[in-house]
Amino acid sequence: MRFDILTIFPTAFSYLNKGIIDKAQKKGKLDINIWDIREFSKDKHKKVDDKPYGGGVGMILKVQPIHDCLVSIGVFPKRDEKTAIVLMQPGGEIWTQQKATEFRNKFNRIVIICGHYQGVDGRVSEYLVDYEISIGEYVLSGGELPAMVLVDSISRLVDGVLGNKLSISGEPYLNNIVKSAPIYTTPRNFLLANGLVCSVPEVLLSGHHKNIENWKRSNTQNSNNTSVQNLDKTD
Ligand SMILES: C[S@@+](CC[C@H](N)C(=O)[O-])C[C@H]1O[C@@H](n2cnc3c(N)ncnc32)[C@H](O)[C@@H]1O
C-alpha cells in the first residue's frame, strides 16, 4: 500500500517511522511519502496561504501548491481507479473501521491532503479530491493527526503489516464487537499508590481453557451491549 501525504508540517510524521509502521515500510509492505506543500509554492517566499475572499477571519491554504503537488506526483489530472485522493476535513464523512477496511480493499495508493489554518481553498474539495474525511466531530488545528489516523488504521489491515494475523482477529469493531474482554499481564497483583491491591481475575490464572473462554465471551460486548457468545476460537 502506498500513501502520499501533503502537508505544511512534514516533520510531524516522525511517528510513522516507529513501531509496526516503520517495520512494515522496511519490509516493503508500506510505502509512505511525505510531501512538503511549500516546496510547490510559486511564491518567492514559499507562501502557501492567503486571506479569504469576501472577508472573514484567518488564513486559507491556497489551491495552487496543492494542485501542483498532485500533478507532480502523477495523480492529477488522471489517476487510476486504485488511487484515492482524500482531504482531511472536520465536516467530512466520519472515519470508521468499516471505512478503513473498504479503503484497504479498494485502493493501493491513498493520497492525503492535510489542511491548516482556517482550512483549504474550496476548489480543492470541489475539483481535486475524491473523499473528504473527518476523524470525529471536533476541530483540530491541522490535518496531520487525522492523516496519521488514516494511515495507521488502514496499514494494520494490510497483509504482513502485523506480525501475527491473530492480532487483529479479536479486535473491537471487527465482527460487531465494540468492547473486547480486558487483557492482563504480569504482575498478578499490583499495589496502587492509594493502598489498594489490584489483581488479575483468578479464572485467567486457572489454566482451565473452557472457563477462560467462557469468561472472555461474557466480558466481550457487541453493539447491542450484550456479551458475545460466539467468539472466534482462535482468539
Ligand atoms: C482548524 S481546521 C479548519 C477548520 C475549518 N474552519 C472548518 O470548519 O473546516 C484546520 C484543518 O485541520 C484538519 N482537521 C481539523 N479537525 C479535523 C477532523 N476532526 N478531522 C479531519 N481533519 C480535521 C483539516 O484538514 C482542516 O482543514
Automatic annotation (TrEMBL):
Chaperone found in the keyword field: no
Record: residues binding S-adenosyl-L-methionine: G115, I135, G136, E137, Y138, V139, L140
Pfam families per UniProt: tRNA_m1G_MT
Ranges annotated as biased composition (Low complexity): 218-235
EC number from the UniProt entry: 2.1.1.228
Top-level EC class: transferase
Annotated keywords: Cytoplasm, Methyltransferase, S-adenosyl-L-methionine, Transferase, tRNA processing
Main location as per UniProt: cytoplasm
SUPFAM superfamilies: alpha/beta knot (SSF75217)
Ranges where the record places region Disordered: 216-235
InterPro entries for this protein: Alpha/beta_knot_MTases, tRNA_m1G_MeTrfase_C_sf, tRNA_m1G_MeTrfase_TrmD, tRNA_m1G_MTases_N, tRNA_MeTrfase_TRMD/TRM10
Source species, domain of life: Bacteria
Assembly and interaction partners: Homodimer.
Known role: Specifically methylates guanosine-37 in various tRNAs.
Protein name, entry field: tRNA (guanine-N(1)-)-methyltransferase
Source organism per UniProt: Candidatus Dojkabacteria bacterium
